[in-house]
Design a protein that fits this description.
With 186 residues, this protein is an alpha+beta fold. 20% of the residues lie in helices and 16% in strands.
């Protein structure tokens, strides 16, 4: 019996089998490849081709939303339908005060506050209902108000105590906090 011919290994040199330790990593890789191909063919199916398209194949996804069917009331047997009724409720008495979330609010006095606080007060008052808040620089310099805490409210529309809605919105006339408001308030 001839002795096994092995190449001597140099110190520090390794073979591929030394890193993976046998066939199991390759089995796992093969299983992942099979799963990926199976998934691809499960999701896509080829469509039929016409006589002129014999050389090409188109792919159509078969994942479609499920259809729901509604059963008309006349097709359900009366014995399987259970009716539930609740006792009638009395109508609520008429209320003259507007509800908090009715879309009509009373404008607070925001003159002298910084814009960030004024906008937060409006957001809290309207409980998240979208209300257009417009800012106007009344210094005559027509500047944009980027950092709202650096701007103060000089005047407001509607005035404090008046009603406003999402449609009417709110307008604040503003200047920088280190500037004075114009004498006429706007």
């Amino acid at each position: 019996m001839p002795p096994e011919h092995r190449r001597p290994t140099e110190p520090g040199s390794r073979r591929l089998g030394d890193y993976f330790g046998g066939p199991w990593p390759w089995v796992v890789v093969a299983l992942f490849a099979i799963a990926a191909l199976s998934l691809r063919f499960a999701v896509e199916t080829p469509t039929s081709t016409t006589a002129g398209d014999r050389g090409s194949t188109s792919v159509v996804s078969t994942t479609q939303p499920r259809a729901t069917a509604t059963v008309p009331p006349s097709s359900v047997p009366p014995s399987s339908v259970t009716a539930t009724t609740s006792p009638p409720t009395a109508p609520a008495p008429p209320d003259t005060t507007p509800l908090e979330n009715s879309g009509v609010w009373t404008m607070p006095d925001e003159v002298g506050n910084d814009v960030r606080s004024a906008k937060r007060d409006i957001e809290a008052l309207t409980d998240g209902t979208a209300v257009q808040v417009t800012l106007r620089d009344v210094s005559g310099k027509d500047r944009r108000q980027i950092v709202h805490q650096h701007w103060q409210v000089c005047a407001q529309t509607p005035p404090a105590g008046s009603k406003f809605t999402p449609e009417t919105g709110v307008t604040f006339d503003v200047v920088k906090t280190n500037e004075s408001c114009p004498d006429n308030g706007a």
